[in-house]
Design brief:
Elements: E1 2-7, H1 11-22, E2 26-32, H2 36-46, E3 49-51, H3 54-59, E4 65-68, H4 75-84, E5 88-92, H5 99-109, E6 115-118, H6 125-135, E7 142-150, H7 157-161, H8 166-169, H9 171-182, E8 185-193, H10 197-201, E9 207-214, E10 219-225, E11 233-240, E12 243-247, H11 273-294, H12 302-321, E13 325-326
Parallel strand pairs: 1-2, 1-4, 2-3, 4-5, 5-6, 7-10
Antiparallel strand pairs: 7-11, 8-9, 8-13, 9-10, 11-12
Helix pairs in contact: 1-11, 4-5, 5-12, 9-12
Length: 327
């Protein structure tokens, strides 16, 4: 049984709390948040202890592993303290807001096997099946990967201000997915525009497209939007020499309607990340716990987090300066 503490009692902390509580090999023992009401509320709803200071988590002999869901600017500090205290770590993305901080963390810890980055989409049953079938050679040599990710609603101006921008906050998942399929990337070209004046005023984009070329010449395209009228748009296509594999949006049921005015009408697609990716979060935790039990390296790793942030930095430069960025 792995005893787990969660740092951060906000929305993502609540997601992780629910997966920990549902796993037979995990036990939630402590919740930490600087806002007393948040910490007390989440901990109290599950009958566990709470605290306000992360150092209490790292000093606790009752904690084996820490899930870090604190604001991104604290991630590196919390990772380093947790590892120093002998705790296993699952840290939410991105690993840092600034590449220099991620590099410092990587230089200090190296390819540490005790740190896992929360790129949960690798564990999505649909995406992971496509990855497995591509690896098995079902569509021959993989030539192109297309990732579409659009959110149903734009975030608040306050959120955008502290997010690091669309490429670090939103596209970071897609950068990791591209590396999951294609490996290391050699070139990045990004374009960003705005339809939301509130986000433009923050110096950020709400519409973005990115083209990436891997070191071995394969290509990927990423399409992002902060708003999508028809829900949480999450699609992927892998195109190869002998065919393609694709993932469409998920709906609550597989029922389709045909009438005099419509054909193959589907229910509305999911419009919340937790509905769409709840299985991914469960499988992510299971992989984390399995690595702890087996003593196996964590994946996605700290280096995966650094490389995804490196791509986000490259895309930011490309979009603002209108040029190809070579890595």
């Amino acid at each position: 049984m792995t005893r787990i503490a969660i740092i951060g009692a906000g929305r993502i902390g609540r997601v992780h709390a629910s997966t920990v509580l549902a796993h037979p090999q995990a036990r939630l023992v402590l919740v930490c948040d600087p806002l007393e009401a948040s910490a007390r509320d989440l901990a109290g709803s599950h009958g566990v202890a709470w605290c306000l200071e992360p150092h209490e988590v790292f000093a606790s002999a009752d904690v084996d592993a820490v899930i870090i869901g604190s604001p991104t600017r604290f991630h590196v500090e919390h990772i380093l303290e947790a590892v120093s205290a002998g705790k296993k770590v699952l840290c939410e993305k991105p690993v840092a807001l600034e590449l220099a901080d991620a590099e410092r963390c990587l230089n200090e810890l190296g390819d540490n096997t005790d740190v896992m980055l929360g790129f949960n989409r690798r564990f999505d049953p649909t995406f992971s099946e496509i990855h497995r079938r591509v690896a098995d050679g079902e569509i021959g040599d993989l030539h192109q990967l297309t990732v579409i990710s659009r959110d149903p609603f734009a975030p608040s101006a306050e959120y955008v201000a502290g997010s690091g921008g669309i490429f670090k906050d939103m596209t970071i998942h897609d950068f990791d997915m591209v590396r999951f399929f294609l490996g290391d990337i050699a070139e990045v070209v990004a374009v960003g525009t705005n339809v939301d004046e509130t986000i433009r005023a923050q110096g950020d984009f709400d519409q973005a497209m990115v083209t990436l070329t891997s070191v071995d010449g394969r290509m990927a395209s990423i399409i992002n939007s902060r708003t999508c009228a028809f829900g949480y748009d999450q699609r992927l296509e892998a195109f190869g020499s002998q065919g393609s594999l694709s993932a469409d949006n998920l709906t609550a049921t597989a029922v389709r309607a045909a009438t005099s005015s419509q054909t193959q009408a589907k229910p509305r697609i999911m419009d919340f990340f937790l509905d769409r990716y709840i299985d991914a979060y469960r499988r992510e935790l299971d992989a984390f716990l399995t690595s702890i039990a087996d003593g196996a390296p964590m994946s996605p790793s700290l280096r995966d987090g650094y490389e995804a942030l490196r791509l986000a930095d490259a895309a930011t430069i490309s979009a603002h300066e209108g040029r190809i960025v070579r890595l």
